[in-house]
């Protein structure tokens, strides 16, 4: 990593009061960046966790700003970026992390949930990109989208995968069209991470318990890869998804072997 590159730069991580987003926020702060923590639901656990996260970041000696905004609502996104412009006048890194979707088979989603799926996980991300452009253009900033293996492999009851696939395509599209503005666009395709959403996923995906512990990704591992994509060391990477899954997707045709078996079969 480049020494002091992140110092006094500003990162916005959508949906970052908990889970992977909060690990990304902490990682940027340890690198010296100031952080905008975004959350959706006011007055509840999300806001509480966002306030605690901001306190931790300030204790690290960085500036932290907590902004409520629902990315699925264009007006709300516009207000968030207006506030960022007014208060800070700068944005270097836009990390598209927020996501929300029911765990149900696609064919069983009622219209309301289908619309929410698209509004939060596709439109919401594009609204953020559009609203961030004037600031990112000034800083020759970076956009990093957080995707998942569901974008390319079947996961039971995971309609979010279809939106992840659409966004991975949007990453390639935006990378090309924004390169003229010197804005880089890439993504991280994460394996399985034990966050709040994992508890729900377990109810629908029995085989999850057969996956050995060493194949679960830590939020911090995703965060390291995100920061790498914002560092000048990654300057040659444009319009790409980096898979951070501890090799899980590489094992499609290999059974999950216990450690002793693995030893026997190693060649
Ligand atoms: N967990 C995994 O196994 C895994 C694997 C690969 C990739 N990912 C991806 O990594 C990202 C984070 O996942 P996670 O597991 O940390 O998720 P999570 O624990 O469910 O947290 C999601 C965050 O997004 C926020 N959010 C949801 N809808 C929003 C909206 N409309 N506007 C603003 N914020 C919103 C939530 O805020 P509220 O609480 O206020 O709703 C929450 O803070 C997601 O994009 C996910 O798809 C996850």
Outline the structure in words.
The protein has 267 residues and is an alpha/beta fold. The protein has a single domain, classed as 3-Layer(aba) Sandwich (Rossmann fold). The chain has helices at 19-30, 45-59, 74-87, 111-139, 160-178, 196-204, 219-230, 259-265; strands spanning 10-13, 34-39, 64-68, 93-96, 142-148, 184-190, 241-244. It has a 7-stranded parallel sheet, with helices on both faces. Helix 5 (160-178) links the parallel strand 5 and strand 6 (184-190). The protein starts with 9 loop residues before the first strand and ends with a helix. The mean pLDDT is 94.
Structural features:
seven-stranded parallel beta sheet, binds NADP nicotinamide-adenine-dinucleotide phosphate, 267 residues, globular, 7 strands, alpha/beta
Order of helices and strands: EHEHEHEHEHEHHEH
Provide the CATH top-level class. Answer: Alpha Beta
Number of helices: 8
**What number of domains?**
1
The kinds of small molecule bound in this structure are: NADP nicotinamide-adenine-dinucleotide phosphate
What does the average pLDDT come to?
94
Distance, first to last CA: 35 Å
Biggest sheet features: 7 strands, parallel
Strand content: 5-15%
**Spans where pLDDT lies below 50 across 5 or more residues:** none
The CATH superfamily bears the name NAD(P)-binding Rossmann-like Domain
Instruction: Could you tell me the CATH topology label.
Output: Rossmann fold
The level of helicity is 40-55%
- Structural classification: alpha/beta
Record field, number of beta strands: 7
| Strand order in the largest sheet | 3-2-1-4-5-6-7
Morphology call: globular
Per CATH, the architecture is: 3-Layer(aba) Sandwich
């Amino acid at each position: 990593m480049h020494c002091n590159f992140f110092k006094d730069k500003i990162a916005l991580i959508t949906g970052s009061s908990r889970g992977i987003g909060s690990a990304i926020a902490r990682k940027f702060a340890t690198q010296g960046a100031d952080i905008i923590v975004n959350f959706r639901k006011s007055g509840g656990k999300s806001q509480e966790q966002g306030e605690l996260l901001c306190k931790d970041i300030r204790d690290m000696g960085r500036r932290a700003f907590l902004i409520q905004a629902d990315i699925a609502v264009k007006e709300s996104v516009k207000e968030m970026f207006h506030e960022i412009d007014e208060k800070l006048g700068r944005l270097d890194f836009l990390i598209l992390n927020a996501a929300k979707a029911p765990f149900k088979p696609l064919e069983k989603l009622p219209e309301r949930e289908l619309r929410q799926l698209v509004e939060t996980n596709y439109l919401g991300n594009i609204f953020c990109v559009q609203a961030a452009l004037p600031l990112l253009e000034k800083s020759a900033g970076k956009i990093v989208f957080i995707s998942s293996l569901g974008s390319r492999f079947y996961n039971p009851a995971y309609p979010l995968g279809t939106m992840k696939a659409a966004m991975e395509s949007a990453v390639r599209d935006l990378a090309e069209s924004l390169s003229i503005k010197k804005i880089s666009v890439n993504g991280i395709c994460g394996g399985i991470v034990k966050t709040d959403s994992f508890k729900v996923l377990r109810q629908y995906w029995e085989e999850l318990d057969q996956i050995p512990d060493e194949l679960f990704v830590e939020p911090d591992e995703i965060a390291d890869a995100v920061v790498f994509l914002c560092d000048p060391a990654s300057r040659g990477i444009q319009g790409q998804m980096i898979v951070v899954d501890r090799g899980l997707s590489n094992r499609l045709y290999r059974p999950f072997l216990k450690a002793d078996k693995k030893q026997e079969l190693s060649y």
